[in-house]
Amino acid sequence: MKKIWKWLALGGLVIIAVSLTISYKVYSDVKETVEVVYTPFHDELSVKREKAIDVTEKEPFSALILGVDERQGDQGRSDTMIVLTVNPELATTKMLSIPRDTYTELVGTNSKDKINHAYAYGGVKMAVSSVEALLDIPIDYVAKINMESFVEIVDIVGGIEVDNAFEFFYEDENFPVGQLELDGEKALKYVRMRYDDPEGDFGRQNRQKQVIQQVLKKSRSLNTVFNYKSIMDTLENNLEMSITFDELLNIQKDYRNSFANIEQLYLNNGTGSMMNEIYYYIPNEEELKTLQDTLKTQLDI
């Protein structure tokens, strides 16, 4: 009987040792990836901040996620612009997808244009400044991801399942109504289509959110855990962000409850307008002001 307990104890120690080794390996790989992708896009303090935020003090913060379509020799445009505002005290995250055709000031050009042109004209710096001017809030962190990597990530998690609201064709691919299983290539086409969507760019935003939620859901599966290194490798080649590893650890530790309560915000009561045969989305001023106030309250400013 003592021998049995001895072997059980030894087996338990081996399991613990292996678990700790795996945990350290994962920690080490994630740390290495974050250090590789860390990019201080804007060293100077935002004009809308008196001092830099400190996540160790559990202060509310904002982040701009830019999904760009970059190809060799072409900086591309930011087809996806998502603003997150996170408040740990309120345990809430507010998520806003900015319509890509939004007609607004492009800071640094002395002119107005579609907001997604800001990245093409002046990179991340102009994109950040233009979003800050539109929403009248500071942007504390930035993450820029090449949408081409989206294909690899969806394939790594084993594909996703979405509920398609209406049938459409895009780039020779048919997307019927109902539950669809999508690999990476199909998922990218699914989120890119907008001209045949009755809701236009707003419909595309909803499909983007749907796909992102499904990817996050699949990323928690056991299969994906074993493939985490493939995801890290993909991110190293396609992601840049201004969050350090230590900041990320603090956010994961102290802000996790906020990410469990995500509220979608919208800027969708504006009007479409044709200028020189080009479509622009003109925000509703009252809705925009309400949105600005909501975000300022969320950021406690």
UniProtKB/TrEMBL annotation:
Pfam families to which the protein is assigned, alphabetical: LytR_cpsA_psr
Residues annotated as domain Cell envelope-related transcriptional attenuator: 77-220
Record Gene3D superfamilies: LCP protein (3.40.630.190)
Stored NCBIfam families: lytR_cpsA_psr
Annotated family: Belongs to the LytR/CpsA/Psr (LCP) family.
PANTHER family reported for this sequence: POLYISOPRENYL-TEICHOIC ACID--PEPTIDOGLYCAN TEICHOIC ACID TRANSFERASE TAGU
Protein name: LytR family transcriptional attenuator
Organism of origin: Ureibacillus chungkukjangi
